[in-house]
Amino acid sequence: MTYKSQSVAKLYFIAAIALFAAQILFGLILGLQYVMGDFLFPHIPFNAARMVHTNALIVWLLMAFMGAAYYLVPEESETELFSPLLAILMFWIFLVAAGLTVAGYLLVPYSTLAELTGNDLLPTMGREFLEQPTITKLGIVVVALAFLFNIGMTILKGRKTVINLVLLLGLTGLAVFFLFAFYNPTNVVLDKYFWWWVVHLWVEGVWELILGSILAFVLIKVTGVDREVIEKWLYIIIAMTLITGIIGTGHHYFWIGTPEYWQWWGSIFSAMEPIPFFMMTVFAFNMVNKRRREHPNRAATLWALGTAVMAFLGAGVWGFLHTLSPVNYYTHGSQITAAHGHMAFYGAYVMINLTIISYAMPLLRGRNAANSNKSQIWEMWSFWLMTIAMVFITLFLTGAGILQVYLQRVAENPQPFMVVQDQIALFYWLREIAGLMFFGGLVVYIASFFVGQDEPEATVAQS
Amino acid sequence: MQEQVIDTSDVLHDRHPPGDLAIWIFILAELSVFAVFFAAYAFTRMNNVELFNEFQQHLDRQSALLNTLTLITSSYFVVRAVAAIKENNHKLCVNWLLAAISMGFLFVVIKSAEYAHHFGEGINLSTNTFYMFYLSLTFFHFMHVIMGMVILGAVAIKAKNGGYSDIEHTGVETGASYWHMVDLVWLILFPLVYVMR
Lengths: 463, 197
Description:
The complex is a heterodimer of chains A (about 475) and B (about 200).
Chain A: H1 8-35, H2 46-77, H3 84-107, H4 110-116, H5 134-157, H6 162-178, H7 188-223, H8 227-248, H9 261-271, H10 274-289, H11 298-321, H12 325-331, H13 335-364, H14 373-410, H15 417-423, H16 425-447
Helix pairs in contact in A: 1-2, 1-3, 1-16, 2-3, 2-5, 2-13, 3-5, 5-6, 6-7, 7-8, 7-10, 7-11, 7-13, 8-9, 8-10, 10-11, 11-13, 11-14, 13-14, 14-16
Chain B: H1 2-7, H2 21-47, H3 49-56, H4 61-86, H5 90-120, H6 129-160, H7 170-195
């Protein structure tokens, strides 16, 4: 750790991992509810569990992005953070708001929560992923603004690198597009239209810039390759991301009442969205192959390469599977979407955050460069357990999806939704087992922070 | 001419592809997007030949031809700019780049007049499939012309400040490569959308 103020990142990373654990626990509950509908009913109904699963994911990814920014921006800018105190204050506000929101989801019916939080004054609730009470949303805006101010001021007073600027662009976009969460027109077409400006333009737009810059930062650190080379790659990756991703929003506009040209625009541009992800894969492997030094933190390198591969598979390949409008006509809103969602979120955003945590945490905890061998071995085991489990979750959901689409929408005598759900139950059971394996991987991951603490740091084998 | 250039300069000049490798990866990616768009156009036309033929008549082929000549000329100017910097002539390089940018500007003006005409007639993306493709394809290309002008502009500024020489002029070649791609796409787009029946 070069700058003292980088240490605020630790708080964010710890909270992120705790929320990650909560997300997975609720994922397991949800997975079981697919096959045992009344599991934990009425205490944790499906809709509440789903909100916790998805919202916890988003919040922990945001927390980890912020932690990543607080860690890497001072180092890139070669200056202390503008205000470490503001960063700590915002952390607690964000954590308390997230905790209260989850408690609200679990303790009272959703409609009561809406009433309690004065949703009628400025109605923003009731939409997928944007379920948070309006007051929580306002809190998110305050936290995001304070965060951007803090990061922006740090960059302004320090060195301006491409990584810093791309990260700042991504984070600014993140904050700006979130504002559409407050736009809630009564026309349901318009509602959906702008809802995607938050959801799609986040994960298939500005978040990719954040992903690219964090990946570039870690690769510079672990490979020692020239900054100039890495920045060039970053430029073309973000250019392709924006060219394909922005108009690619159109792949959500096929069936919501928007004009027909979106079928073409959405299909063509989003079909190209795998390109920047593929570039990222080529980029990561190229840089590691051209490395100028062996970094003792092998786990971080593994996570970085894993991100590049899994993001391409999950976001790129599994996204492409159902992005063309003639295909999407059948697959829309089926388990194919769920398969894509799981692997894309894990491969792109979970893994990039675990990459930066893997790189930064040993330094934040006082190591010089890396954890002990023992701790790294545990961490790498968790990498493989979670990643392989996610591959299985994705494959089982894809199987479920193909069968579902066929029975429900393609077959000569299409069957009703719930009848089909019964017939694909086997896939749901298999998915749940893979989910347990993922949970096992997560336990090993968390354990890796506690084992091998007394052992010396891993070193690079000298030959 | 080509011989002279090689004789008077460094090995660097012979490098293939010219310019930065990154721009070629970008060019490849961009061309893939256009290729998919062109293929979609071709397949859709196959199923709607009459519609496409009918509305193709309404396009302004003369303006499009003029624009084709404009872009080819601009590409020639860019070639001159690269040749000039290889002879270490900064001023000439900047002038040729500015000439190329002005041709790009002329393209934008002519194309805008075409759009104004179509929009004046109330044509939009939902008018029919032909216009959907015509407007989308040409507008996507239009944005690339503007992007190419920005890139050439950045190269011109750096050249003006003496940022390139006969030894090191990767940036000029990089900008030139991108501009040629923009030109090349139009050379496919023009016959495909305006002429071929």
